[in-house]
């Protein structure tokens, strides 16, 4: 299953419109400033989690060898799990944690998940043996 | 999502997904691991493919199946296996099979 361009554009437009609406609500005094920020950050976390959830489904063309195919699938599963968990943690932190904690911890979690994903992709590309993952 | 739940409700299909976690396998290799006929296994493969849980491609004369689970579907599979929803899969290979 692949995410189509139309779906991606629709998601981006939704984020932009939601951000604009929240900003206007804050300007109109109907919302506290931090509520708007939290809502946008939570939406970002949910989108990261949703995209991470679909990463293992985006299989490329079949690899020539079984070992390479296993490595690719293991890398996609690990990357998907890392990004899903990071996105969920990001959203939960912005939902419940104080802003002083939510900001550094959520960004740290997302950064770690991103670095782990890059690490898995590079390891898969360079063909390092990893049958257990 | 209904198709996913239907596919994961059957222990044989869950066992197929478990086997595919180890890597891609041909339809024959998978069928040899179960004491059911090939047409029955073919029906199971079709249900899994329609639910988008596995991907198939032709390699010569064989059809090779690959796992295509999202993180959530993977978690649902683990949950189903953990609690043995729908019973357990028949594990005895067919007579004469090498697996």
In short:
The complex is a heterodimer of chains A (133) and B (99). Chain A has 133 residues and is mainly alpha-helical. Chain A has helices at residues 5-27, 33-54, 66-96, 99-125.
Describe the model:
The complex is a heterodimer of chains A (133) and B (99). By secondary structure, chain A is mainly alpha-helical. Chain A has 4 helices and no strands. Chain A has one domain. In chain A, 77% of the residues lie in helices and 0% in strands. In chain A, helix 1 runs antiparallel to helix 2. Chain A is elongated, with a radius of gyration of 18 Å. Chain A starts with a helix and ends in an 8-residue tail after the last helix. In chain B, strand 2 and strand 3 form a beta hairpin. With 99 residues, chain B is of the alpha+beta class. Chain B has a 3-stranded antiparallel β-sheet. The longest helix of chain B is centred in the middle third of the chain and has 13 residues, at 38-50. Chain B has one domain: Arc Repressor Mutant, subunit A (Orthogonal Bundle).
Main beta sheet of chain B: strand number and arrangement?
A: 3 strands, antiparallel
User: What structural class is derived from the secondary structure elements of chain A?
Assistant: mainly alpha
Q: From the 3D coordinates, which CATH architecture of chain B would you assign?
A: Orthogonal Bundle
Question: How many angstroms does the end-to-end distance of chain B come to?
Answer: 33 Å
Low-confidence stretches of chain B: none
What is the gyration radius of chain B calculated from CA atoms? 13 Å
Global mean pLDDT of chain B: 83
Proportion of β residues of chain B? 5-15%
Give the overall silhouette of chain B: globular
Question: What's the total helix number of chain B?
Answer: 5
Give me the strand/helix succession of chain B: HHEHHEEH
Largest sheet of chain A: none
- β content of chain A, as a range? under 5%
CATH topology of chain B: Arc Repressor Mutant, subunit A
- Level of helix content of chain B? 40-55%
Mean pLDDT over all positions of chain A: 84
Give the largest interface. Answer: A-B, 17 and 16 residues
How many E strands of chain B?
Answer: 3
Q: By CATH's scheme, which homologous superfamily of chain B applies?
A: Winged helix-like DNA-binding domain superfamily/Winged helix DNA-binding domain
């Amino acid at each position: 299953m692949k995410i189509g361009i139309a779906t991606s554009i629709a998601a981006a437009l939704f984020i932009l419109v939601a951000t604009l609406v929240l900003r206007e609500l804050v300007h109109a005094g109907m919302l506290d400033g931090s509520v708007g920020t939290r809502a946008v950050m939570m939406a970002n976390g949910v989108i990261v989690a949703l995209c991470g959830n679909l990463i293992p489904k985006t299989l490329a063309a079949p690899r020539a060898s079984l070992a390479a195919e296993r490595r690719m699938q293991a890398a996609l599963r690990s990357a998907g799990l890392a990004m899903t968990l990071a996105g969920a943690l990001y959203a939960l932190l912005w939902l419940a944690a104080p802003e002083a904690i939510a900001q550094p911890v959520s960004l740290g979690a997302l950064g770690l998940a991103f670095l782990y994903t890059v690490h898995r992709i590079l390891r898969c590309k360079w063909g390092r043996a990893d049958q257990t993952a | 999502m209904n198709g996913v739940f239907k596919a994961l409700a059957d222990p044989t299909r869950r066992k197929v997904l478990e086997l595919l976690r180890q890597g891609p396998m041909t339809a024959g290799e998978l069928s040899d691991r179960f004491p059911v006929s090939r047409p029955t296994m073919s029906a199971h493969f079709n249900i899994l493919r329609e639910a988008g849980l596995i991907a198939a491609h032709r390699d010569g004369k064989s059809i090779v199946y690959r796992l295509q689970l999202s993180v959530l579907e993977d978690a649902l599979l683990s949950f189903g296996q953990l609690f043995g929803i729908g019973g357990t899969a028949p594990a005895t290979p067919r007579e004469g099979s090498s697996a």
